[in-house]
Amino acid sequence: MTTTSDPCTAFAPVLPDPLRSAAGRRILAALATADPPRAHESRNHRTHRQLRQLAGMLPPAHRLLADPDLLATLSACTAVVDPALYMTVLNHYVLCLGSVVGASGDLRRNGPAGAGAARVHVPKALETGARKGVFLITEIGDAGSHLAVRTVAEFQPDSREFVLRTPDHRAAKFSSVGAPGMPQSAAVCARLVVDGTDHGVFPFLVDLCDERETAPGVAISGPLRVDALPLEYALVRFEGVRVPYERWLRGSASIDELHCVDDPLTVEQRLRHTMSVGQALWATVPSAAAALARAAAVAALRHSLHRRSHGRLAPGSPVLTYRTQQRALLPALAEAFALTCAAQTAKDLWAFTLDGRITTGATSGTPPDMAFAPWASVDRRLAAFKALAVAGAARVTGECQHRCGLAGYLGVNRLSAYHGFAHAFDSAGGDNRLILLDIGRALAEEHADATPPAPPGHPDPDSPTWWPGLVGALERRLAGDLHTTVRTRRTPHLSQMALWNPVLEHTRQLGEIHTRRLAAQSVADTLAGVHDPTVRGPLSALAALYGTTQALRLAGPLQWTGLLGPTQAAALNDTADRQCERLMPHLTTLTEALGTPDDLLPTPLSDPDYAAALGGTLTWHPGAPA
Prior knowledge:
Elements: H1 7-11, H2 22-32, H3 43-55, H4 61-64, H5 68-81, H6 83-102, H7 124-127, E1 132-136, E2 152-156, E3 161-165, E4 173-175, E5 184-194, E6 197-209, E7 218-220, E8 224-225, E9 232-244, E10 254-255, E11 261-262, H8 267-275, H9 278-306, E12 308-309, E13 317-318, H10 323-354, H11 375-378, H12 380-403, H13 415-424, H14 432-446, H15 466-489, H16 496-500, H17 504-528, H18 533-553, H19 555-560, H20 566-583, H21 587-594, H22 610-616
Parallel strand pairs: 1-5, 2-5
Antiparallel strand pairs: 2-3, 3-9, 4-9, 5-6, 7-9, 8-9, 10-11, 12-13
């Protein structure tokens, strides 16, 4: 197999890997040398210890949250080491501290804070990680609770405090909150009520518990288990918790001495603003998902290259000799590459927002209405990249886990944890299905009545413009079809539910195709900047296989919209076989360039002598062979 002298160096300008950056290596090294788990220590306590260690080497929260590169690096590093740690870091920094810092104005790096924004003090205990921060928005009893938060913060004019109450058991909050034993605080999303009037959903910074007991008025349930992302989760209720005025994360809102609320935002705009803390999540979770996808694909390919098969067709041959294994794992590597390109695009979009080059929510034009959830209305493109990234990572890690047999299910090889992470984030951080529904609905409503242009030329699937052009044409045609259907059915007396409910699956599919188009464009943009032939050749081969694999998955819609004929669709399998053959000579180069640093993140799965590497991770009972 051909290889460059230093693939990592050659590919770095094209695909900068946060794990290999100076900051990434420092974070990985720190986590690698951390104290091992202690006897009888819960997962939450362990990740809290790691959080405190990270806090000691990270800049203050306001600087971290204004640095997309460092935040993406932190996300990728913690996710590949331990997805449960990533969830802890995400809750603490991005959501809880993000709500606190964001209340002082926007986080733009090159501009003033929001006009009239309150200056909120960041408690030292949160800044140092002595207190673990969480974000409480989800209410357990109803679907779509983000749109109808029922927890109430009632203003008390005499004391200028707020009283936080959970109206009933259906409004109990859910998050990765542990029982007392570690100090914890939360950004609690609650409905501000002043003199009986609802003024929208704001976050309030609330201390939940310390080392010994819960705070007065706070009730935390026993642990709830989530196997996909193992932490301690719990329900939280509030019964008359008193919150000081300065812990109201109010932004530019205020309440005067006459109890009048001054807020430049409407109730719906306020919810959108409160949920805008998710932008940093959506901008950086693609980096974490891409890192997991790359790690899984490279480990599975290396394992298949060294693992011998004793099937009667070719006894003793590496598993990767079989075309079925190639057709599973090489497309997984190709999708991991596409997710890496998309992660860079998402991070760049967020950086442009922080620099003031685009305004919040303006990455995709007019925000869609909050029909199903608030996320797409905050920032459609970043929400779309989140949905794309975790869905793609779930496919890649699931396929790799399956193709490694027993080894794929052993915790020491990390694939189970990676697959669980990706599946959990299908709902966490913004439900993918609801994001896609809102995006699809907006695309259909915005569609212009015009004949969709034909896809560009270059019918060759190896062309870098073939798949981006084809999936772009598919998006336009599906948007046009849905637009026509909705326009035809719409009458003055037809409710929105009656109008949209029959076409929701079409709407979701349009939203999903939109995310596939974003990924295809990210890949094309990446390739356009590659001029080194030793890099362009392998990446072009990966991009071609990615496009063919996506076309195979979407063969039905491509045919019923007339974009692919039956003969062209039938030829895609042979095309994928040929593209796999083209990739095999580049495999060493690509796995070295896209793999995780073995010196800081070793796994038995990637070792040429897997059995010995696995045995080396175990404690053997006396009498075992040396």
